[in-house]
Write a structure and sequence with these properties.
This protein is mainly alpha-helical and 372 residues long. Helix content is 43%, strand content 9%. Strands 1-3-2 form a three-stranded antiparallel sheet. Helix 1 crosses helix 3, helix 8 crosses helix 10 and helix 9 runs parallel beside helix 11. It is flat and about 60 Å long. It starts with a helix and ends in a 9-residue tail after the last helix.
Length: 372
């Protein structure tokens, strides 16, 4: 069960409690689930009971106790514990990692894409500055991954090198009002957006103004330059230097791409040994951080779109990459050992990690090479 699915499950529990007359509240539009904080337990926690306590006229712990049995109706949930003033701590059944890997491999690079912004028109406008233009390009991709209809314009047309070197591929409207023509409907990531039925009067206008780049990023090339401009938060001053090109562990971009390349190498090596990935139970404390990071990917993508912050996605990819290496040594059989179900399950998890890394880098406009 992904965080997005769990969030919907919590909403359904609230709705059932309301329908059965146990709570008298308005069902919220969304519920946030996140890893439990210190003092919590389980896989995820939510503060929905605290949010509903005042409108329900009940103590938060009482609201949590009302919701607990409704959550336990879902066979994918193993236990729900109420802690503190009324936090619901949710433990998923052991089969959940199998379903997670299956879902990632089924969706491929589109894992985490959703409809949280379904049909909403967002108009981006960037000044004539390289970081702002690259930021708008990546932000458009992230917004579209969550179902938004995006139109992007600039005060002045971008420099040709920003397109040829940095891969900026944005169909532009003219300077001024920020209302692109309906023909400006595609980009390199998703060419399916249409304006039919979209109410332009309900559009969100966003001025993209990150802290400008202190130096010309073009000498870094496409991938390193985009990472240098997108990895820092928009309000932070980016560093434009050769540190983004070095192939060593203190370079986050290298760690992300290297982790992806290693998962692809394992798939090739496994094929040479005559076996393929097959989702199954994967045990051991070494894989828990990776499973958590993969399960969190849809939530991070939705948050990056909602807060217009592609840097959140970049930092999440670093977290996935840093959680991957501990899995890899046990993926292939050693010596005379024959490939087993455990090897196939770990290979499937490695494949899922590589898939998430490749899909995330693609949204940032960065290549994920199979060989590095």
């Amino acid at each position: 069960m992904t965080p997005v699915e769990l969030s919907r499950t919590v909403l359904h529990a609230v709705r059932r409690a309301v329908d059965e007359g146990e709570l008298r509240v308005t069902v919220p539009e969304r519920v946030v689930v996140a890893p439990p904080r210190p003092g919590g337990c389980g896989d995820y926690a939510t503060n929905v009971a605290l949010r509903l306590a005042r409108p329900a006229g009940e103590p938060a712990r009482h609201v949590a106790e009302i919701l607990r049995p409704h959550l336990l109706r879902d066979g994918r949930i193993a236990e729900v514990v109420v802690t503190g003033p009324g936090f619901l701590n949710i433990s998923l059944r052991s089969a959940a990692p199998v379903a997670l890997v299956q879902e990632i491999l089924r969706c491929g690079p589109r894992y985490g894409h959703g409809d949280s912004l379904g049909g909403r028109l967002v108009r981006l406008r960037a000044p004539h500055e390289v970081r702002a233009v690259v930021h708008a390009d990546a932000l458009g991709r992230v917004l579209r991954s969550q179902g938004a209809v995006v139109r992007t314009g600039h005060d002045r047309p971008p420099e040709e090198a920003w397109s040829t070197v940095l891969g900026v591929d944005i169909h532009l409207d003219g300077p001024g009002d920020g209302h692109p023509d309906a023909s400006d409907a595609s980009d390199a990531t998703d060419a399916t957006d249409v304006t039919d039925g979209t109410d332009a009067t309900d559009a969100t206008d966003v001025r993209v103004r990150p802290v400008p780049a202190p130096a010309d990023p073009l000498p870094l090339g496409r991938d390193a330059a985009r990472w240098a401009l997108l990895h820092p938060a928009p309000h932070d001053r980016p560093r434009i230097g050769a540190e983004h090109l070095v192939q060593r562990e203190d370079n986050p971009l290298f760690r992300v791409r290297y982790a992806h390349a290693r998962t692809r190498a394992l798939l090739r090596n496994a094929a040479d040994l005559g076996f393929a990935p097959e989702p199954g139970p994967v045990t051991g404390a070494d894989v828990q951080p990776l499973l958590q990071a993969l399960a969190d990917h849809p939530r991070v993508l939705a948050a990056a779109a909602a807060h217009r912050a592609p840097d959140r996605l970049a930092r999440h990819l670093v977290a996935v990459a840093d959680a991957t290496p501990s899995l890899l040594p046990a993926v292939l059989p050693v010596g005379e050992e024959k490939p087993s179900a455990a090897h196939r399950a770990r290979l499937a998890l490695a494949d899922a990690a590589g898939t998430v890394l490749a899909g995330g880098l693609s949204l940032l406009g960065i290549d994920a090479p199979d060989h590095l």
